[in-house]
Structures are given as structure tokens and as C-alpha cells.
Amino acid sequence: MLIKAGFMAGALSGSAGGITASHNKGGQYFRLRSIPTNPSSIAQQNVRAILAAQSQGWADRTDAERGAWENWAQENPITNALGDSILMSGHQAYIQINARLAFDGQAVLTVPPIVNAPAALTSFTQRGDIGAGAVQAEFGATPLPANVQLWQTAAVTNSAGIRFIKNLLRFVGVAPAAQASPFDNQSLIEAVFGTLIVGQTLTVRAATFDVTTGLLSVPLESRVVITTT
To answer: Which pLDDT does position 10 carry in this prediction?
Structure first.
């Protein structure tokens, strides 16, 4: 069911009772709220452990350190799912940045970064030949700067017609700092999704990641249908 909210309601997003409001390119809509299953996978448990550790880390910070994070969050708004600019709390900013660093095995920060996010990629193409070719990420500028890695999330679907993959994206890993293009990311992808099969569609989003600040650039996305030669 499509709806058009009046000026008093504006854009709707979220759940109330058993109804969820959302939107896509077709417009605003309501749907019955569904409760997802809990897979209790190793990956899920690792994520929860990292988030719990960072939340405890926030509690261990001094008042001055927490104040610095609050100030940083006020100066660095993010964009939500509706395209609106919103402000995080210092707690949210601390967990967001340090969770990334923890995912990558880097030292966490007690105070916020004082530099900007790394420069974004100028180009990105994902190759998907599981035969004589290669499954690799080709990117520019190359090589990456020192202390900057290639942060990659991916989704694998069995139909090229599936275009909305935001909820399917999974973190697959990084290419090392100062990596030159191309980077063979097949093993990273298959460690998460299993062996790639001809006809599947692989979507990869790549961004530059500063291992000293935990900051990410704006990502670029590339889609490829898996082939073999």
C-alpha cells in the first residue's frame, strides 16, 4: 500500500506496534513488522563482542575524553536513511570509530581523530572470473597511501535482478595499507559467502580506511556477474 504523508507527518521511518513505515524509489509504504530470526552465527557473536567491548571502553574514559568525543560528534554529522543530517552522541561516535578499528585488529582510540577522512577512491571495478581470469578489485589512485587500507563490504545474490542489497552487505575484509591495484579479494569474499558460482552476482563496495583514525571515505560500488574462462 502506497501512502503520501501530509506536511504535518513528513517522511516516515521505523516501527510502531506491528506496523513498519519505510520508503523506496516507488514512494512511502507501510508493511507488517516482521521479527527476524537470530542466527547466532560466529560472525554475529564476534560483532556483538566488539560492540560490547567498545561500550565498556566508553565507560572507562575520563570526563575530559568523553567531552572531546561529544564535541567531535557535534562537528561531524552523519546522514541517516532518509537523507537527513543528524548528530550522533559522543558515545555513538566512539563506538562507531573504534568498532571499525577493532574489526581490523587496530588499536582503539581514547580521543577522537583530529584529521579528515582519507581521500576517496577515484575509480573502482570488481572483476569476477573464477576460471583463468581473476576475482579482484581494481582501484585508483594506486597504490594506497601509507596507513590507508581498502575496506570492502560485499553481497552475493543468485539473481542479477536484485538491486537493493543494502541489507545483504557483509564486511569481508581489507586490503593492506599501501596496497597497489589490483587486489585479489576472492579468498576474502569466499570466506564469508562460500565458493562463488557462475551466474551469481557479486556486488562490492570499497572505501579507503585510515587505520590511525578509524575514518572511512565515501565508498564506490561495482557489480559483476560471476563467469569462468
So the answer is: 59
Classify each residue of 205-215 as buried b or exposed e, where b means 16 or more C-beta atoms within 10 Å of its C-beta. Answer: bbbbbbbbbbb
| Alpha helix segments (H runs only) across the chain | 42-60, 63-75, 90-103, 186-193
Distance, CA of 36 to CA of 52 (rounded, Å): 21
Q: Respond yes or no on whether the N-terminal peptide bond of residue 141 is cis (omega within 30° of 0).
A: yes
Read off the pLDDT of residues 49-75 as tens digits, 9 standing for 90 and up: 999 999 999 999 999 999 999 999 999
Beta pairing, strands 78-79 & 85-86:
antiparallel
**Nearest-angstrom CA–CA distance, 198 and 128:** 9
Q: Number of folded domains in the chain?
A: 3
Question: 47 burial class (0-12, 13-18, 19+ CB within 10 angstroms)?
Answer: middle
* pLDDT band for position 41 (cuts 50, 70, 90): confident
- Structural domain of 63: 42-103
